[in-house]
Amino acid sequence: MTHPVPSSSKFLAWFAIVNGVLTCAAPLAITYLSGRSLPSLIVVLYLFLGVVSAIAGYLGLIGKAEGFWLLFAVFLIQSLEIIWNGPSFSLIGPLAFKFGWDWYSPPFRLRFNILALVVCILAARAALAMGASAASDNSSAA
């Protein structure tokens, strides 16, 4: 079900679409500008994050609350980076504003993507607002 989209949520949806396009283009741009290729897993990750972000932005733009929940999910997985000598993971996309701590003995890095956390909060607020407007529409129709 579609709902009217406030202007702040439209901005967030357009941001998601632009972020999706730029994230999909990042592997090509990095390869072209640096002269070295990225590992295949990183290319697949960037393409996945970009396509899902663009789809979420489009769904949000047409007024579907599910689009903002999808946007919340895709940016939530980009919000944390943990790197150490053992198994490490970083699902942060190319567009990030990181804040964190590094320890050198033993080597350990914990970083938070502030941009992703802000987008998560805004997407959840937009989805909850759309859900609240849908509930009020349903109660007034009954």
Briefly characterize the structure.
With 142 residues, this protein is of the alpha+beta class. Helix content is 63%, strand content 15%. Helix 1 packs antiparallel against helix 2 (40-61), helix 2 packs antiparallel against helix 3 and helix 3 (65-76) runs antiparallel to helix 4.
What does the average pLDDT come to? Answer: 87
Radius of gyration: 18 Å
Number of domains: 1
> What is the tally of helical segments?
4
Decide which structural class fits the backbone: alpha+beta
**Would you list the SSEs in sequence order as H and E?**
HHHEEEEH
**Unreliable stretches, pLDDT < 50, 5 or more residues?**
none
Number of strands: 4
Please give the order of strands in the largest beta sheet. 2-1-4-3
Helicity range: 55-70%
How much strand?
5-15%
Shape: globular
Sheet of most strands:
4 strands, antiparallel
Describe this protein's structure.
It is a single chain. With 142 residues, the chain is of the alpha+beta class. The chain has one domain. Helices cover 63% and strands 15% of the residues. It is built from four helices and four strands; from the N terminus they run αααββββα. A hairpin with a 2-residue loop joins β3 and β4. α2 runs antiparallel to α3 (65-76) and α3 (65-76) packs antiparallel against α4. The two termini are 17 Å apart. 28% of the residues are buried.
